[in-house]
Task: structure prediction
Amino acid sequence: MVSVSNSVLFPLATSSGFTSDGFSRSVRFARTINCSSDKQKGEQRNVLCACMEPPPKLRSDESFAAKFEGFSDQDPFKSEDLSTVWEPEDDSDVLIECRDVYKSFGEKHILRGVSFKIRHGEAVGIIGPSGTGKSTVLKIMAGLLAPDKGEVYIRGQKRIGLISDDEISGIRIGLVFQSAALFDSLTVRDNVGFLLYENSSMPEDQISKLVTESLAAVGLKGVEDRLPSELSGGMKKRVALARSIIYDTTKEAIEPEVLLYDEPTAGLDPIASTVVEDLIRSVHTKGRDAIRKPGQIASYVVVTHQHSTIRRAVDRLLFLYEGKIVWQGMTHEFTTSTNPIVQQFASGSLDGPIKY
Result:
């Protein structure tokens, strides 16, 4: 499902850029996600979630920017031609793909031709200055926004319109927004289990057990009966994460999950940020959660400004600037890139191509 701020299960609030009409659409979307049909199985299934590992043939010993002849400090966008950047020939592991995506709001052009692929097992970070379209990319991937131009493919199937208008199955996509977006009047138990209470036929005691397990997976125990107002900011973020990873275990076919995080450590102190960053890793298929069980998230994408999140939570980076991907590379290449835009962002310098 989609959440208003940091949780996969809930509608987007007006603060996320949606009108009251968009809010109701998000509610329908959340339910459609969980109710869209798997035509082969004849079942209702389609939740949201995400995770990632480095592509199998990726050369991690050289910067992507260096692959472009003619790149110079005078032309920092030479690395823009990312259609020619290395890509594996086999696309069978591609879960989500954006091709030449454009998006505008009125006369404000947000995305200007963004193309990338999210593969099974990857942990990808989307970074860049504020206002460059990072959150917009996440909403387009999740199906909450439709691109003005370009295509979005889900496991090779082209998505038409919004997720609620389509019946593409085979993957669950979850969107976790900045703020926890918990329902203030509901307990933690009801917040985490909301999707299942509303859209599944599971008995309440079974849902309650899954809620407890999901909370334990993110390091929270004994908080089921608390209200959101009784939780700290970091605890709310973890409840939102628990809400994003819960799913109906009675379904025969469980599709891979892609979880999209929008600034998951925003507003947290360094220690709380580290907890959340480690949790993001732990619920990934290559990690182990707080109770040492293997993670269930196939791939994930993190939008962030924080260097600690870049270092700890992701393996591959996409750098968005003025609506375009101007650089991409592995996390360890970030601080050594010769791209002046990346250098300025990494150092926090006031001197450089990025102007405020």
In short: Confidence is low (pLDDT under 50) at residues 1-86. The longest strand covers residues 94-105.
